[in-house]
Amino acid sequence: MQTSLQHPSSRLAPLALGCAYFLMAALALASSRFEGGLAFIWGANALLMAYLLTSRAGAWPGALIVCGVASALSTALWGMGTLAAVPMAVINLLEAVIVALICRRFAPGGKFAGSMQRLFVFILALCGPANLIAGLAAATVASALTTVPFASSLLQWYTGHVLGGLTCTPILMMLMRGELRRWFGQTSRRGKWEALGLLLLFALATAFVFYAARYPLLFALLLPMVAIVFRLGNLGAAASVMILAMIGGMATMTGHGPLYMIPGTLGERMQFFQLFLAFSFLLSMPIAAELNSRRRLFQMLQESEARYRAIAENSGDVVLNISVGGVIEYASPAAAEQIGCAPELLIGQDAANLVDPADRDQVIATLERALDQPGEVQTVEFRPFISAQGSEWCEMVARAVVDERGLPTGVVSTIRDMSRHKARQRALQQVAALDSLTGADTRRAFLEKLEEEMLRVRHGARACLLLIDIDHFKAVNDCYGHGAGDRVLAGFVERLRPGLRGGDSIGRLGGEEFAILLSGTDVVRASMICERLREMVTAHPVQIDSGEVIPVTFSAGLVGLGSQSDAQAVLEAADKALYNAKHSGRNCLRLAA
Predict the structure, then answer these.
(1) Are residue 329 and residue 186 in the same domain, yes or no?
(2) PAS domain spans which residues (predicted)?
């Protein structure tokens, strides 16, 4: 039967459930109808609720049918008779279904023994709508068929079903989920002997309190129960409650124990005992749930720590743990290679000492942002103060570490050498700034230089812009082909460069149109430079692949920077001067008006 109940999908599960329900119901009715009405002790519904909460919804109809039949038979044979059999069966099923639906809706998963939230939802569902509705209906039936008043019947139902459900349902759910079997498979022999010893001692203590003690010492059992929970967890809590229920229940029903000292009927004493049993269980289960949560958290922490250590100690990046005050608390082995300092020597040092003084404020601000915004990752690039490999640039990625209250306790950061990346970045920028055919600046790069030069001119510097167009270049492409045209363009720039000074720039604006930025010179000096360039180009024709020599000349427009408001106005003025040069016979220079 136990095997079938632990596997709700088994075909024998409904039949085994019905038999178990019938036995529990019959035993409760035969032994605890102290006043001739409802049973004072009722754990059968706990069995049904545990089954509904641990099985798939498709298995519910069969379980409800067999339990309904079992409830009707037990009521007819040992309860209030055949008239009450069907109504009481419906009421019992209603209670279990309400609890199961509420728990499935608000606490999916059903492992109440390991979750405070799920246990709380179960308690509210059982003590609230389930037994308020079912209790009113049961009290109506009982008061109509027996001499017990409505209020007394309601109290009997509510205490018996609530206390029985609270005590038995989580225990039965653990058994149905196979937690006992897993515990036996995962626990060492020493752990099993320890569990047996603790439970045996608790059984002896319970027997002493209920059979031998001259004073009411129920409180004395709470301490060993808590100790068992700390050592054995959920199953320890369940086992101790079962021991307490069997020994204490038998003693109370036979006229022994501290509860027998309370004046009242046997039914009232059994209600007090169930109340004590439920409170004992509710004391131990939250502790067990919290311990389980802490064990899982500790295990996750250990796994996370192991992963962190493996990554930190085998990574090429430097990993640092930095306190709130900016002091290094841990440095990974990569620090010896990347920073040139043994990790143990970095501990206790200010993290800012690793940064070039020019970048320290920026790095400190990044670490402070990481502490102010614990959930976000902060990144900063800086130049190291010292480096074993001569690193020029490093990148730091930082994130705050928080405690259980969400308050930052420090920063975990990784430092990576960015020198190669920076070099590639500069190389790519340089490639993007140069015309692939001629080696001159691209239009965009040249215009940026023009803007910078105009800014210097506004502060008193002098400069000129020379706009150049190769004469009759279209005829070169038409007669010799575009390959020859490309060779002319490249050779043209080659012939111009020797005539330029170190601070001058040449750019290709498009096609055969070029521009030269002459820094630190006025229009007169720029005109002389232009004439020298024109003579150099004319004196050295370009030889193409076929061996033929192509003479090259150019027309130019010159404008001095300073009078124009922006780069576009400068280009327009130079373009007008170039237009005049082309219409003046070409191979000449014209000044902007």
Answers:
(1) no
(2) 304-374
